[in-house]
């Protein structure tokens, strides 16, 4: 219970931070609406009694008291209606303010968390649950609390009124609803535990749905005729968790029906009691109507209260998922003593690096030691899965090694702010991003925060160096033209053209260290030749690391590092490694012999 109260308190803090003004308006309107029903019931009683008296005395409808009561009932009803409409409008405004606030928290947390989280299935379970609940669950807590307090205030007034009729009527009103609250609380917990258990299966359903509707899978889906297969996979996965959920809801509905039967029996007893008192002359017709309305309203308020209590209990379960995500720790951060390093002056030293991906038994990087000097061009080669791209992620401090260290100009990189350290790098990743934005914006994203005097010329220069300037110039709106296929008036590019855009993006960034991970994998022979024939001119003044399976490209490096099974197998110039007749010699001769004049490779 203490934990749930803490979660409520933290959730309400988020609600207040997101929209304090709307929160106050919501509370004030709810307080006003809690009093109006009682006032309306009393006025109706007075109206009926006034009409009854007028009938007995033979007075006309023009009696001032009757007209006054009618106007008063209409006014209170109107106030109740507009306060209800205003309340809905206020809640909608508060809800959207909270939604954008919570999305901001989720997004900022997501981009700050360590990249290694994306290698853990349990992280996606936590993220899925948080994304599903965070935008609206804190607001649900506030609304349930307000409904609870409003309902409790109204119920207290109505119960006091019914108590004046007979104390047993008040007891019946309260007692008949007790089974309902137990049922709601019980099944709230059952549904939460079920949904938490089914999160991996729900993600699997979402994945199969993406395979059937997404852009990237669409070509193979049609070519290999996989549509019916994945429809069946989606159906089986979807039904697996939905059928069990519906079974739980079916049981809950059955118990609700039994509870409804008891409520109807209670109402029957109350009607008989009130009718007897009325026909016996104990109470007036107006009082009869008042007590009936009060009892009916009391039932409604109890239902609201119990609904709010069960809602709060459910909220306390689900909001924990949101805070579980928001409380995840970032381990990749600057450690004391903090070093302020904004330039690269001498060399980077990798010493005894070891790294293993979560869930793997074998090491991806195994005791790697390496020096990278300023201005040097290094090529890293090796078979698929050897650990080349992982080494780059360690170097950029996207991952932290299990053991060993990386030093930049003598400073351990763990003592440097990660954001500042990464500004020293510009990278074309093997799985580079395709941004459905304008061509110019795609390039500018390489250094979005840069204070560039002549930004347009710098973008054009990067595009020219990457060999994509003519393509962009041919677009209807040039650098302002939207590229991709998600939005209207956009132009889709080939994979090779996208790769040139990614290369231009990396060149736009004024970083002293340039890393190119398979930068020409999708380029045609002419484009590849054009880039690598002037590679030294392109990377002039930068320390460059080239990862490539094209051995004709790596020969231009000052030094070639051969990675095999996570370890450095060989190191040297092209000529030195060829003379050594080791792994590099074997891979080079196989490629050049089998695919002479071709751009393909076995590696």
Question: Could you explain how this protein is built, in words?
Answer:
The chain has helices spanning 2-18, 20-57, 64-112, 121-133, 137-163, 167-175, 178-197, 199-213, 218-223, 227-279, 285-326, 388-395, 418-422, 439-444, 455-466, 469-474, 495-508, 525-533, 535-538, 551-554, 574-580, 583-594; strands spanning 347-355, 365-373, 377-381, 403-408, 411-412, 425-428, 482-483, 490-491, 513-517, 543-547, 559-564, 567-572. The protein is of the alpha/beta class. The protein has three domains: 2-326, ABC transporter transmembrane region fold (Up-down Bundle); 347-424 and 511-603, P-loop containing nucleotide triphosphate hydrolases (Rossmann fold, 3-Layer(aba) Sandwich); 430-510, 3-Layer(aba) Sandwich (Rossmann fold). It has a six-stranded mixed β-sheet with strand order 6-9-10-3-11-12, with helices on both faces. It has a four-stranded antiparallel β-sheet with strand order 2-1-4-5, with helices on one face. Strand 4 (403-408) and strand 5 form a beta hairpin. It is elongated.
